[in-house]
Amino acid sequence: MSKIEEVKAKVEAGKTKLVAGLVQEALDEGNSPNDILQAMVDSMGVVGDKFSSGELFVPEMLIAAKAMSKGVDVLKPLMAGDSSNSLGTCIIGTVEGDLHDIGKNLVSMMIESAGFNLVDIGVDVPAQKFVDAIKENNNVTLVACSGLLTTTMPALKEAVQTIKASGLEGFKVIVGGAPVTPEFAEEIGADGYAPDAGSAVVKAKELVKA
Ligand code: B12
């Protein structure tokens, strides 16, 4: 089994104590941070499928998520890029009722690397808290809302609409998360959508520079 396959297997198995070391070993063997990250993202897909089929339950899903976070911590410094914060401040959060944060954290990491000052307001964020954060921070150019559950898609809509109705200006709103489609993003009035962390950066820069 290659080191990368080992990382994937241990994330799936929720081996929180082993993953960081294995990620480091995979790096030492010359694997790219992106390839290692993708392997861990794939693991979460497998875990999700096993949850759907009743092979795994919430505690196993949670522990796999923790294992992945340990691996991401090792990769984070290597993914860092432009730290000039020249693109302004990005407020990011997962919408109300939703506790999923791995995707949000990856998007945060990439957006920060691209040159935004990142303000992460966490998970289960009520719509008004996004508005408060925009008011409390300087030079907000981007607001990013994440939602992972079909049942929290209405909360995503409420967040975007509350932000848009606040009368505050000078920023764009981007949304994402597994159940979100470009059509849904447009329907709820978001300025942009991206399917993953890499394309989120491309879209974020495009929106802010427009
Ligand atoms: C880990 C996990 C959990 C963990 C979360 C831990 C954590 N700290 O995040 C725990 C155990 C808490 C959990 C709980 C639940 N979960 Co869950 N979970 C998952 C799992 C396995 C992985 C999610 C993940 O991290 N994926 C990896 C990341 C990298 O991908 P991502 O989140 O999609 O993010 C990428 C993109 O979507 C995008 N993106 C994300 N956010 C944003 C934001 C912006 C602005 C942009 C541009 C892009 C973007 O970029 C990211 C990076 O590339 C998924 C299965 C899956 N295939 O996704 C189920 C899944 C999402 N969960 C599911 C369910 C049902 C639940 C529960 C309701 C289970 C229960 N009965 O209690 C609860 C809900 C709790 C709540 N209120 O939120 C379902 C959702 C089904 C649906 N259609 O809604 C899934 C799909 C599993 C399944 N196949 O059934 N879960």
UniProtKB/TrEMBL annotation:
UniProt cross-references to SMART domains, sorted A to Z: B12-binding_2 (SM01018)
A single cellular component GO annotation: cytosol
Keyword Metal-binding annotated: yes
Residues covered by the B12-binding domain: 87-210
Gene Ontology terms describing biological process: homocysteine metabolic process; tetrahydrofolate metabolic process
Molecular function per GO: cobalamin binding; metal ion binding; methionine synthase activity
Domain B12-binding N-terminal: 1-87
Family in the record: Belongs to the methylamine corrinoid protein family.
Protein name (Swiss-Prot/TrEMBL): Methanogenic corrinoid protein MtbC1
Organism: Alkalibaculum bacchi
